[in-house]
Amino acid sequence: MQITLSDTIRLQPITINDQKKLFALMESIYPPAYNHLWVNGDCSFYLNLFYSKDPLQEELSEKDADYHFVVYNEETIGIVRAQYNQASIDGTNQKATYVNRIYLGRQAQGKGVAKQLLQWVTERALLHENHSLWLKAMDTQEQALRFYKKEGFEIRGKTSLNFELLHESLRGMFIMQKEL
User: Fold this and answer.
1) Strands 154-160 and 172-179
2) Residue 116 belongs to what H/E stretch?
3) Are 10 and 50 in contact (CB under 8 A)?
4) Number of structural domains in the chain
């Protein structure tokens, strides 16, 4: 079922039949922002790992998760994925929502789209009686880090991606959390 967030933004659920569309979308969104992280500028490993048919089928089968295309002015420009009722990262037994993915094309940047997506995820988290949102962000993506901090997220820890094809010095990630 389609979800309308505003006059210009709506969400369309992703199904297994959308795999080719999802893969093509991510081929257009991911490389401009993240190619520099990958040895030889080749991020196909990442795209295949998460957006091929089998991984997509597995993610779509998860309970308590939303996975949508983001449509802005009738153009599909991104994706959002959230997992509810996850363990909180602060060590408490409180339920939390993991903002697993927000990827938007450059045409959506600075238009308030990501802010509206986070508001929608927050509303969904509260419906699930979750007490916080958390996410992982590359520690080199300054624009994303500024945005998340502006939206009330705080850095709560560090981790790294252990993909051999990532430049070792660019594997760092911050774990960020926002209380609801």
Assistant:
1) antiparallel
2) helix 113-127
3) no
4) 1
31 token code pair: 């490389």
Q: What's this model's pTM, rounded to 2 decimal places?
A: 0.94
Looking up residue 157, the CATH number of its domain turns out to be 3.40.630.30
- For the chain, what is the largest distance between any 2 Cα atoms, rounded to a whole number of angstroms? 44
Helix and strand counts by DSSP (H, E) for the chain: 5, 8
DSSP state of 156: E
Question: What are the structure tokens assigned to 39, written together?
Answer: 């040895």
Residue type, 138: M
3-state DSSP assignment of residue 153: coil
The residue range of the domain holding 70 is 3-179
Cα-Cα-Cα-Cα dihedral sign, residues 65, 17, 116, 113 = positive
| pLDDT tens digits for range 85-103 | 998 887 777 899 999 999 9
Task: Give the Cβ contact number of residue 173 at 10 Å.
Answer: 17
User: Both tokens of residue 96?
Assistant: 């939390």
pLDDT score of 56: 98
The residue length of the chain stands at 180
How many angstroms separate the CA atoms of 123 and 108, rounded? 22
